[in-house]
Amino acid sequence: MELCNSLKYNRSLYPGKAVFFYKDSTSDFIPLEAEIAYIRGKKSSFAEGFNADSSPKNSAPQDLSFSNPLAIEECYVPPNVEAIYCRFSLRVEANSLKPAVCNNNEVFDLLQDLAAAFKEINGYKELALRYVKNLLIGTWLWRNQNSGNTEIIIKTSLNNVYKIENTRFLTWDSQWPAIDKKVLEELSVELEEALSNPNVFWVADITAKIQTNFCQEIFPSQPLLDAGEKGLLKKQLSKVKCADGKSAVVFHRVKVGAAIQLIDDWWSEESAKCLRVHEYGADQDYWVALRPPASKIDFYSLLKRAPEFLKELEQAKGQNDLQIMHQIYYLFAIFIKGGLFPKKGGK
Q1: How many Å apart are CA 131 and CA 268, to the nearest integer?
Q2: Per the domain annotation, does 61 fall within a domain?
Q3: Which residue from 31, 140, 189, 227 has the highest number of Cβ atoms inside 10 Å of its Cβ?
Q4: What's the domain count of the chain?
C-alpha cells in the first residue's frame, strides 16, 4: 500500500488534568498548592570548570565557589496530612475504526476494513487490557508512585466502581491476586467496548489515594519555560485555578496520556520495558529510537503492510488458538493515539 499525502486519526483517549488535593474534617477537596523557595544555586556544571576541548579553565578556586540566587516552585505535603489524592477523568471514543481525514478513497476503505476485521476477532481486548493495567497500577502517578501505599478507585459512566486496595503489590508483569485480576478483566471489558463501538459514550473518573510521609515532596508536571525571559521562576509547576481562587498542582493531560500509553513491549522479542506508543519507538530514557526506519517495524513501514495484515486477520477468523501479530497491535495502538501521518515528497 502506498502512503497517502493526507492521513489523520483523531485520538481515542482523552484524559483530563490530574489534580492533586487533600482532605480534612471540614472539606473533601483542599487544593494542594505550590510554594516559592529561594535557594543558592551552586556552579557545578562541566562548562563552569572546563573548556569545550575538556581542558581545565584558567579560573581561581574562588570562582567556582560562588552561587546564584534562584527562585523556584516546589510542592510538599502539608504538616499533619497523611494522604494526598490525585484525580482525573478519562473519556474514550472509538476513533481508530476509520481515519478522520484521508485523501485516498482506496486507502480509507482498506484501513476501515482492517479495523473491522481487527474488531471482529477481538483485537481491542488486548489493547484495553494494557491501558487498564496502567490505570490500575498507577503508572500515571509517575515519581509519586515511590511513596506509601496507594489505593485507586475508578468510577465509570456505566455506574460501576472498581477498586485496587494497594498498587504496591502490583507490577506490569507480575502475577496479580485473584481479586485484583478480576477488577482488571471487568474494567477491560468496558474499555474494549468503548474503543470499538462508536455508539458508546464512556467516561471514567480515576482517583488515587497516596499514603504520605511527613511533609514529603510531591512531583506534579512542570511547564516548559522560555530560558530567555527574565523575571520568571527558574522552575515552575503546572497548576489549575479552582473555584475558590486557589491553584492546585496538576499533571497536564499529555503526561497522563503518556503513562496510559506505556504499552509497547512489541518492539523486540527480548524487550525488557514498555515504551510509550510512538511512530519510531522513541525511548525517552536513553534518547534513542527503538523502531527506526531501517528496522522495518516503525509505524510507516507497517502501515504499508496493511493489505497483508487485513488478509491475515480475515484468515484468522474462527481459529480456536487465535494469535494476532504483535505489529498489528502496535499499528492500532498508534491509531488510538491519533495524529497526523502525511507523506511528504515522492514515493
Answers
A1: 20
A2: no
A3: 140
A4: 1
Distance CA 290, CA 298 (A): 9
- Assess if residue 255 is contained within a domain: yes
CB 282 within 8 A of CB 289: yes
Count Cα neighbours of 326 within 13 Å in the Cβ-side half-sphere.
10
Q: What is the pLDDT along the chain (347 residues), one digit of tens a residue?
A: 888 889 999 999 999 999 999 999 889 999 999 999 888 877 788 888 888 888 988 888 777 777 778 888 999 999 999 999 999 999 999 999 999 999 999 999 999 999 999 999 999 999 999 999 999 999 999 999 988 899 999 999 999 999 999 998 899 888 999 999 999 999 999 999 999 999 999 999 999 999 999 999 999 999 876 654 555 677 889 999 999 899 999 999 999 999 999 999 999 888 888 999 999 999 988 889 999 999 999 999 999 999 999 999 998 887 766 677 899 999 999 999 999 998 874 44
> What are the residues whose beta carbons fall under 8 Å from the beta carbon of 50, sequence distance 6 or more?
56, 57
Q: Residues 102, 104, 109, 113: what is their CA dihedral angle, to the nearest 10 degrees?
A: -70
* Structural domain containing residue 308: 7-33+78-340
User: Whole-structure pTM over 0.90, yes or no?
Assistant: yes
Q: Is residue 1 part of a domain?
A: no
Residue 117, phi then psi, degrees to nearest 5: -70, -40
Q: How many CB atoms lie within 10 A of CB 35?
A: 10
> Residue 11 and residue 96: Cα distance in Å, rounded?
8
Closest listed residue to residue 298, CA positions, set 330, 336, 276: 330
φ and ψ at residue 7, rounded to 5 degrees: -140, 130
Identify whether 170 is part of a domain: yes
User: How far is 220 from 286, CA to CA, in rounded Å?
Assistant: 22
